[in-house]
Known about the structure:
The chain is mainly alpha-helical. 45% of the residues lie in helices and 9% in strands. Strand 1 and strand 2 (53-55) form a beta hairpin.
Amino acid sequence: MVDIDDHACPCCRNDLHRIGEDVSEKLDLVRAQFRVLVVRRPKYACRACGEVVVQAPAPARLIEGGIPTEATVAQVLISKYADHLPLYRQAQIYKRQGIDLDRATLADWVGRAAWHLRPVHQWLLDHPKTGQLWAYARDDRPWQGDDPPGVAYVYAPDRKGERPMAHLDGFVGILQVDGYSGYRPLAAKNTVLLAFCWSHVRRRFYELAAAGPAPIASEALRRIAELYRIEEEIRGRTHEERHVAREERSRPITDSLAPWLHEQLSYISQKTKLAEAIRCALSRWDGLTRFIDDGRIEIDSNVVVQSDQLPSIARMRCLPVPTPEPNTGQPSRR
């Protein structure tokens, strides 16, 4: 409340009466505070008997003989696993507030809490729920684009083709994808051009060559490697320069690779893994060679593959805490 000091009219000195008020708001922060909860248990004795002492039992504690309440342990767990704040940093924060807690002590609390949470953990194991995390990434840096890179993650309970249709509703442009057939309906709308990924094609031939002598797969890998060498040289140039270089150097490679694959396919059994790898490449040839026509398109979708590997923030921020081996029957102290 902010009020005037004098409630008398500045003109005639009569009493002022309230006709309204202005209300405004400000966002304030009340820092988390520690408090000590004191539990008193009176003792009673009988004057007649002399030996009888009666006292209420002590309330159960989450950690037997420990000082934290359930709320304190819950805060440590949330900070560690939800906010990715390692225990040594939590100890530093608490020390600034005058609470000296060693990180080994905090680790013990975490371990004992995990022991109590075993029924919840078991229930989650008994009732698994799976889903798909779709990643849509953009990175224009390889061709000196002005827009910043970014990636969007969208959860879906399955990998049905209707998911990308819903996620990318209204999108117009080029979409670089793997060989998943669920993206094809997007191209059918004539608003999206699909560019396929050479890395996924290459992987099929690599697995065959790694398993043993495979001259056709090895030759395919050699030719694909030539495309990647060109990409390494032109990465970071403008999209016009990339387009010119690809037309001059990459186009001859792909123009000779397609008929060569057709020829090899006619020599081998159609039921082999090699035949599957060749058919996979040829059935997506227009999308695989689309990167040559547009310098903004990458040769593969590795930017999305890399973004799928979500960084473990907790692992990067945490330091290992040496702890003793747990006693038999006691919770693990990790």
